[in-house]
């Protein structure tokens, strides 16, 4: 006697990628972000995640790259960490915003940025 092997059925769950992205990205309130210097111009950071940041376009082009330095004031840490990473513009959207990715960012730096995003979200919920 031969039995036909049944393949298990599972429910497929689809996630809206925009919702997933939002949960790990911190959007600064108006004029509450920090500034960085990108290609000699000071720009205000609009949001941050462990993957990168975004800011308004000041005449930059897609794939422009620069080395940046910034410090994050993480509420639970005594000494704010300073980051020295590469930053590359991946896309420019219709709202004239540059969406950038960090380059040469260590695992430890990624984790610290995740921690910063989490602490900022918790702080917003508490207030």
What does this 3D model show about the protein?
The chain has 127 residues and is of the alpha+beta class. The protein is built from two helices and seven strands. Strands 1, 2, 3, 4, 5, 6 and 7 form a seven-stranded antiparallel β-sheet that branches. Strand 3 and strand 4 form a beta hairpin. The longest helix is centred in the C-terminal third of the chain and has 20 residues. 14% of the residues are buried.
**What sequence of helices (H) and strands (E) makes up the elements?**
HEEEEEEEH
Count of beta strands: 7
**Structural class assignment:** alpha+beta
Q: Which ranges are low-confidence, i.e. pLDDT below 50, for 5 or more consecutive residues?
A: 10-22
Q: Share of helix among residues?
A: 10-25%
The averaged pLDDT comes out at: 87
Radius of gyration: 19 Å
Backbone shape: globular
Largest sheet: 7 strands, antiparallel
Terminus-to-terminus distance: 68 Å
- The number of helical elements comes to 2
- Beta content comes to 25-35%
Topology overview:
Blueprint: H1 17-22, E1 26-27, E2 35-38, E3 41-48, E4 53-56, E5 65-71, E6 82-92, E7 97-103, H2 107-126
Antiparallel strand pairs: 1-3, 2-3, 3-4, 4-7, 5-6, 6-7
Question: Any key phrases for this structure?
Answer:
7 strands, seven-stranded antiparallel sheet, globular, 2 helices, 127 residues, alpha+beta
In short:
With 127 residues, the protein is an alpha+beta fold.
